[in-house]
């Protein structure tokens, strides 16, 4: 039996069902750096409600190094720590750190990203930076409280 909150969550989750191509339009808008098209595709919805089992829109914007889309999605309430299913359960922060993208790392941390979140291998953003020898990025993450004792695979 669903309580009132459960019904609301169920309805919110089905918003994307009304427009099954909204996710594809949002993804294309991010990839083409078209914020107006992104806003039109997402509408009033929570950006994460469009995602379902697919790659989070914030992860798409982060991996594409699209700072404007990252900012827009964060303002709209995208889950800053949402794991990416096909990427070891990595978060946007892990991807930005591994890409040595200091601008996005700072924006994600300011938005509340968990600097010590771990992927399925037990690696955090610090590990993602360290594996690629990105010493300045690793130092930045340490300044933001990354645990140097977190080890993964």
How would you portray this structure in words?
With 153 residues, the chain is mainly alpha-helical. Helices cover 53% and strands 0% of the residues. It has 10 helices and no strands. The chain has helices at residues 4-13, 22-31, 35-42, 47-51, 57-63, 67-75, 92-98, 102-110, 125-131, 135-143. Helix 7 packs antiparallel against helix 8 and helix 9 (125-131) packs antiparallel against helix 10 (135-143). The longest helix is centred in the first third of the chain and has 10 residues, at 4-13. The protein is elongated and about 45 Å long. The N and C termini lie far apart (42 Å).
Task: Give the tags.
53% helix; 153 residues; mainly alpha
Q: Indicate the low-confidence ranges by residue numbers.
A: 5-17
Structural class: mainly alpha
Mean pLDDT: 87
Overall strand count: 0
H-E string? HHHHHHHHHH
Helix content bin: 40-55%
Q: What coarse outline follows from CA principal-axis ratios?
A: elongated
Radius of gyration: 16 Å
Largest sheet: none
What is the terminal-to-terminal distance?
Answer: 42 Å
Number of helices: 10
* Residue share in β-strands: under 5%
Secondary structure layout:
Elements: H1 4-13, H2 22-31, H3 35-42, H4 47-51, H5 57-63, H6 67-75, H7 92-98, H8 102-110, H9 125-131, H10 135-143
Helix pairs in contact: 2-3, 5-6, 5-7, 6-8, 7-8, 7-9, 9-10
Kindly summarize this structure in a few lines.
This protein is an all-alpha fold and 153 residues long.
């Amino acid at each position: 039996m669903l309580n009132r909150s459960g019904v609301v969550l169920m309805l919110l989750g089905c918003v994307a069902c009304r427009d099954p191509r909204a996710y594809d339009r949002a993804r294309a808008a991010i990839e083409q750096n078209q914020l107006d098209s992104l806003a039109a595709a997402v509408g009033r919805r929570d950006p994460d409600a469009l995602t379902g089992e697919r790659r989070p829109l914030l992860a798409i914007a982060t991996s594409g190094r699209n700072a404007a889309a990252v900012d827009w999605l964060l303002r709209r309430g995208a889950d800053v720590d949402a794991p990416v299913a096909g990427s070891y359960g990595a978060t946007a922060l892990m991807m930005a750190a591994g890409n040595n993208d200091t601008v996005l790392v700072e924006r994600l941390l300011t938005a509340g990203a968990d600097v010590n979140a771990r992927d399925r291998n037990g690696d955090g953003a610090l590990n993602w930076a360290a594996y690629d020898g990105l010493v300045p990025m690793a130092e930045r993450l340490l300044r933001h409280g990354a645990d140097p004792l977190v080890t993964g695979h």
